[in-house]
Amino acid sequence: xxxxxxxxxxxxxxxxxxxxxxxxxxxxxxxxxxxxxxxxxxxxxxxxxxxxxxxxxxxxxxxxxxxxxxxxxxxxxxxxxxxxxxxxxxxxxxxxxxxxxxxxxxxxxxxxxxxxxxxxxxxxxxxxxxxxxxxxxxxxxxxxxxxxxxxxxxxxxxxxxxxxxxxxxxxxxxxxxxxxxxxxxxxxxxxxxxxx
Length: 196
Known about the structure:
By secondary structure, the protein is mostly helical.
């Protein structure tokens, strides 16, 4: 069923790229994925469940990209990579942009609120993070990746401030792209290097 689930999410994402979410029809998503409409309903419970899973996949994909950005290079290179990934992911994916900014257009599925009805055979999904929660998650992952064992508490606090500043700079670049020097130039100018 995992392959059918991914095919359905791919088909729903492709449909969303062509038209607003309210115009996306379940029968078309199922047909594009090569499965029955009943399989779609068994997997997601309905259009709201499909939307929730689509948004969840966008959030998970964004956070996986953050982890990749934090995987190699020096500390500043990794933070710059996180900022550049954040801006690029938001530019390429309207769902990621909405998750990061909280700005949901009528073209997108409504932002999921509260617990979702779950088909009997599925586990409930964790709630989606709000924009401030995403900033905290990315900041905390960056701090964990950049701090070594035995980092002094005061240094960890300063590192957390620098990491949060970088994430917030990246978010500002989502709504107002930087000029000459790009994101890396902004980070070099604004974030204090003493924390790293």
